[in-house]
Write a structure and sequence with these properties.
Helices cover 82% and strands 0% of the residues. The protein is mostly helical.
């Protein structure tokens, strides 16, 4: 598998995952870049995509935890984190699932017709209300509603029922 494909496929999802742990997107991006740099330097062999994905998430988690431990200015956050480490493992597992669902969703939204995909993303991912979308795109409220309905029908057909249900659960729809 090509390094560029792996980077393109997992970089954004891993940044989101790391940001949930460290609380700062800028630091999360640095962490994920370091993970990919180590992967590149190692030139490790993985039996399949599942092993590679597991490695990427575990390496990102460990790097994020190391970042938190090393950040002197966040002593309070570190103490809270260490107290709830067992609880965090379950939350992290949920976050991995959430991130993977959104990775698949983003891919399918990108395959929707342009205007339809844009409206679905603004509503269900960014959490904007129909009125806000209509104003931002300079279109009618009815057009927004029609495109959302169309987009969701297409996603329901293209995604597995489980992924679609998780998307509905995790999204910020209005």
């Amino acid at each position: 598998m090509q390094y560029s494909y792996i980077f393109k496929e997992y970089y954004s999802a891993l940044c989101l995952f790391a940001a949930r742990i460290v609380g700062e997107p800028g630091h999360a991006e640095d962490i994920v870049q370091d993970v990919f740099e180590k992967l590149w330097q190692k030139q490790s062999y993985f039996a399949d995509l599942r092993h590679l994905k597991d490695y990427l998430y575990k390496a990102t988690r460990n790097a994020a935890l190391n970042f938190l431990k090393g950040a002197r200015h966040s002593q309070e956050r570190q103490a809270i984190f260490l107290d709830g480490q067992e609880e965090m493992t379950a939350a992290e597992d949920l976050e991995v699932i959430r991130t993977e669902v959104f990775r698949e969703i983003y891919r399918e939204i990108a395959n929707l017709p342009e205007q339809c995909g844009k409206i679905v993303r603004m509503s269900y991912i960014e959490g904007l209300k129909n009125e806000q979308i209509a104003e931002l795109l300079d279109i009618s409220l009815q057009t927004v509603k029609n495109q959302k309905t169309r987009g969701m029908k297409l996603l329901r057909m293209r995604l597995s029922p489980v992924v679609f249900a998780l998307f509905s659960l995790f999204s910020h729809h209005s």
